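Consider the following assembly input.
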Amino acid sequence: ALPSRVTISIQLTPLRPARFPSIERDPVFSRENQYFQSQNERYEAAVRKAVHLQKKMHEMGWTESGPEFKYIYRAVSGDIAFLLHRIFIRSISVLGSDKQIAKWIPLATQHKLIGSYAQTELGHGTYLQGLETTAVFDITTQEFILNTPKVSAMKWWPGDMGRSATHTVVFAQLYINGKCYGVHPFIVQIRSLRDHSLCPGITAGDIGPKMNFENVDNGYLMLQNVRVPRENMLNKFCEVQPDGTYVRQGSQKINYFTMTTVRISLISDEVIIPLMKACTIAIRYSVVRRQSKLKPGKQEAKILDYQTQQEKLLPQLATAYAFHFINDYLQELFNRVYREIRKKNFNTLPELHAFSSGFKAMVTQYSTSAVQICLQACGGHGYSSLSGLPSLYTRIIASCIYEGENTILLLQTARFLIKCSRAASAGQPVPPSVTYLAAVKPGKCPAKNKLEFLSPDIYTEAYQHMAARSVQRMGNGDLIQSGVKKHDAWNQCTVQLAQAAKAHCHYITVKNFAETVEKLKTEAGIQKIMKHLCDLFALHGIFSNAGVFLHDGYVSGAQMDMITASYLDLLAVIRKDAVPLVDAFDFTDKSLNSALGSYDGQVYQRLYEWAQKSPTNKQVRMLDYIRATLCISQSTRCLLFF
Amino acid sequence: ALPSRVTISIQLTPLRPARFPSIERDPVFSRENQYFQSQNERYEAAVRKAVHLQKKMHEMGWTESGPEFKYIYRAVSGDIAFLLHRIFIRSISVLGSDKQIAKWIPLATQHKLIGSYAQTELGHGTYLQGLETTAVFDITTQEFILNTPKVSAMKWWPGDMGRSATHTVVFAQLYINGKCYGVHPFIVQIRSLRDHSLCPGITAGDIGPKMNFENVDNGYLMLQNVRVPRENMLNKFCEVQPDGTYVRQGSQKINYFTMTTVRISLISDEVIIPLMKACTIAIRYSVVRRQSKLKPGKQEAKILDYQTQQEKLLPQLATAYAFHFINDYLQELFNRVYREIRKKNFNTLPELHAFSSGFKAMVTQYSTSAVQICLQACGGHGYSSLSGLPSLYTRIIASCIYEGENTILLLQTARFLIKCSRAASAGQPVPPSVTYLAAVKPGKCPAKNKLEFLSPDIYTEAYQHMAARSVQRMGNGDLIQSGVKKHDAWNQCTVQLAQAAKAHCHYITVKNFAETVEKLKTEAGIQKIMKHLCDLFALHGIFSNAGVFLHDGYVSGAQMDMITASYLDLLAVIRKDAVPLVDAFDFTDKSLNSALGSYDGQVYQRLYEWAQKSPTNKQVRMLDYIRATLCISQSTRCLLFF
């Protein structure tokens, strides 16, 4: 068992709202049997939970947009149905006119319909302009006629669509008098409110098993001459008038704003929290599990006392903290931009778009790899579903794909950085976060021994140099061409452009971590521990990407040895606080749902008890079959084989 | 659809034995519904397949050890039961006396019993000396009494043990007159041959769901005063005589030889074949999928025409070929050592052990990461189980853990390399594969332009320099200490020691690939293509591990730019042959079992058709529940909420 232990009191999680009943103790929300359920059972449980939650929220007077929802989502670990209903509401709120909002939002919030969001198609994902669903305006009936012209145009993947939704927002190419006006959103009813049967012209169903998300009925949707009234096109920014005149108001980019907000909001719930859970499970297990001996004649050592295990897990712990703080940074950026947008100022939208893209890509990719490391670091038991790690992993890996494929997002960030780099070099104004791009000078890292590499100034400067150089050399290179060659040149630089975007995000993350530690209003002891984590995050990044720091001689081989030494020294230092540092994430046992990660450390007993609940231990009919294959009784003739 | 295409005729797969009936077309072996089945259904199907296969083998006169089994295993993709039965047979063949072999092998090969192999415990995996199960010799009855003294001593994970096996080889600490003689193997019956019920003193069951291997009943086993006769200890190398005298013959290391043989045999079936499958699926999909435009006004481009997609997939393709060839190298090493062992010469065993460990670690780790890249490179559709990629991934990741945890294996390789490095420096004889360790000299890579980096001599030399330096600096460092400090020093070097071991294996893989291409007896055109792949594998490795090549200045920053340029150029060259290069792996559509990877490229139609078969599309009872949550009929009162 784990010893009684010190607590690190740093507030990382939202405070549970006052007089908030326990969601976790409610049997309807139990995740106890989750690992044993089929896709269908998971879906049914998720629907039950969603309905139960709505009842509770109604009783308590909570709203979908209130502060409680974040806490609830954490408590149920996202394992409820109708989450796309929230995206349905959000897209109408952002893209709908006041009249549309007045009509649809009350229906949705009172659950008189179940909404979904139908954007992705079988043949098109991130490249929205390529969507093939059509919406043709019929002036005679004042309706849009929606169609799925071919198989690849079928909507595919939308959550809550396979079995639940009654309505959805369909993104389709708008045609008026044979002319295409690009992709627009339309509210379409797909199932009857009377008997939930599919509406005329609608084909829909479930897309089948996925790597995770068994609780969600990701669906497909085909439309055959489905007519919706003219009023069903969301028309806050674009409108088709009765005579077929197309009117646009404001920036078309605002159509993608729903995606930007989703992209930012998923980072905390779908990425950082799972990463923190994985760290908690793996680190707690690593102080219970013993293997082999560090010294002859001694007891077997806890595996977290091995340098190799520390080097696997502790950088992931530091990453979890780094990403927690960069998420705050992104939220602030978002709030600032959103205030401007509400004042009809769209100037800061490109910066928000570029950075939310790049950070989404970096955070999801590093966190996915971190959870994989945590899983593998727990050996065979990590591979058991009962550890909780396989489900965390198979879920977080999806975050690299959904809401924008990571490589494409990084290239969007890179395009923005190149533009800023050129502007900055030309003395034009650029956002404060990228002014550093103008200031790269050749030079050498001034640190003279391994201790100096524990100075945030030294390593932040190294990251800045590396990021600026990565961006600048791309901006100076082949990209400055014109005509068709320009596109070939861009394609031939994309591997390095994506690296440059990642370098920028990594730099900002290190810088933000260092600044956050500096400002920490907490006990000196906590600040010191946070400083260690910040150092570890920074030096691990240099150690793991040594090439880019060594490339132009900014860091020398001898300095890289000092960095390595400091980095490895830090592992042993942070090892001492590793358990309190994961305790500080404040997950309950129920929320972790892991036989390896519970607070009390009763790993083996719990694995054994949980395994008893597996349905495979309640199946007997196969035994007859096996029996028949063996030579039963004293006979020497095996029934089947001989 | 894919165009008709050229064929690359390189023989990579075992030729189908003459007059061999199609395993794949046999309905019992169908994997068509695999993605929709529960753990229990998968297990039952696997048992049915195993029994059906035995019948077929009996009819055809094939044996377990015959050449056909490799082909069969590939055809059924490992999705059959009773595979541990083969390990049971192998361990008795290797560790049993002639008398034991004469008694047990016929029973096993005639399937009069179902065997398993019970080594791993809840509390101990790779560190075998720590196993806690006990076997106490009772001189009065001439029996061993086996016990599971505590929860952590329970056998946990053995395949075929949860529900199927009747017998198993239990590894336990042998005690005679209170003295412990270490871990030894004992044959123990666990289930009745009459009615398959558990034998007295046996508790056993299924350990529940895992990330994959639903077809296998990995199990647990507790022993309570289970008695087996003295003859049941496998005693080719160690024996307990009737009077309790313990006699050892030969090396104790031979006890681990079963593991070494398993480790080598899994590389091809469980790692390289799945990697080749993942490459086939992802590359075929990437020439069907189109996204965005490379040039304005043109058709959307195939995603494999984007440099970033090439950079994801083509290095994995090169890796699949590199590992195919290194597997041949390992097989040869194994055959050479095995010939010696049969002549009672154990001298080459350490080399085999060290290299099988290191290559197992490198091949499984790189292949796991490669399959993950293939999955993510297919975007959302790669995440669908129907792509086949999730099951390939969740299965291959286990190979990093089973048969020896990778980090521990790398450290065993490192220990051997350090020893050899010191011996070589002292002028003592070392195996030919490591003589290069004596010959590190400071120096610089002589290549002057990017084309020179396409010379195998240049890059092989660079890898050799890097590997030798990585090993040597560890050998020269803190490790030369004595007493307790020696163990601390070792622990503090393990991160870098593991890197050194990987560097050695990477070097040998590059060298072996280059030599194989050189010797290829095939058309010149094929040799040229293989040379491109070899170049790509080598330069990708330098590009991705730039730090170690730059560190001591062997490669300069300017040279690294040349390497990067050559590497990126190669992507566009190999792109042209990418489809034929995966066709050459020669997988049938049934064997790939992927909606994305079929030969005809009908991706979208197949995804749609396969989704129809999902049980989630046949469930209706939840609809009533959803209906009740909505405002049905014209009433304005929602039944549940308001």
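Residues 483-519 of chain B form the longest helix (37 residues). Ask yourself how this observation constrains the way the partners meet.
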